[in-house]
Amino acid sequence: MSPLAHRILWYPQVGSTNDVAGALAEQGADEGVVVVADQQTAGRGRLGRTWASPPGAGLYVSVVLRPPSHVAPLLTIAAGVAVADGIASATGLDVQLKWPNDVHVSGRKLAGILAEGAPRYVVLGIGINVMPAAYPPDVATRATSIESELGRPIDRGMVLAEVLAALASRYRELSTEGGRGVIDAWRRRAASTLGRRVEWDGGGEARLGLIENIDEDGALIVRSGSELVRIRSGEVRWI
């Protein structure tokens, strides 16, 4: 496996770091190439949402990976754990996870992850709110930043280094030892969400249930009445 972050490309501004990394991957870039930008003008999150990327206020990072087939199903779960681990190591914050890989502190979103791929590669996009910023109103009500939580400045470079180190470790673990350690780590960071009430779309209608756990494949297990429902993808709304 190629070393992660053996090559880091930094840009003052791009449309999307995932697009830049994807183009590099299509051109044959080695696994482990990292694209970092100070600002994104067209950053995106899961389910087609926009990811607010004010200049200098966050870390906007994409990593080119070429995972073996047995690793791909748990890659986003592992990435969530790695980002949480890295932020916690750099800051000491009590970082939690919401399925599948939203990173939260104090009930507000601190970071998000978007995996996009083709048959020969996966681009793992990571957005971390580092400094307070003027976010759009719909984002401002549910977002936080590392510096807002700490009440002091933080070195973005240190956060990036810790996150990439944690990602390398979890990716190696997933590749060589399987998913047990990653799943257990995710469950620990998501413990506060167990038993929470959620809504999701199933069979063309909105359904309600209580979160029970995730299974060994990273799917969310929700109890809806007497039924256990396995949710593999899509949006889960916390109520």
Annotate the secondary structure layout.
Blueprint: E1 7-11, H1 17-26, E2 33-37, E3 58-65, H2 75-91, E4 96-98, E5 102-105, E6 108-118, E7 121-129, H3 137-140, H4 146-150, H5 156-177, H6 180-189, E8 197-202, E9 205-214, E10 220-224, E11 227-231, E12 236-238
Parallel strand pairs: 1-2
Antiparallel strand pairs: 2-3, 3-7, 4-5, 5-6, 6-7, 8-9, 8-12, 9-10, 10-11
Helix pairs in contact: 2-5, 2-6
Report what the structure shows.
The chain is an alpha+beta fold and 239 residues long. The chain folds into two domains: 183 residues, Bira Bifunctional Protein, Domain 2 (BirA Bifunctional Protein, domain 2, 2-Layer Sandwich), CATH 3.30.930.10; 45 residues, SH3 type barrels. It is 28% helix and 31% strand. It is built from six helices and twelve strands. The strands form two sheets. The protein has a seven-stranded mixed beta sheet. The chain has a five-stranded antiparallel beta sheet with strand order 11-10-9-8-12, with no helix packed on it. A hairpin with a 2-residue loop joins strand 6 and strand 7. The relative contact order is 0.15.
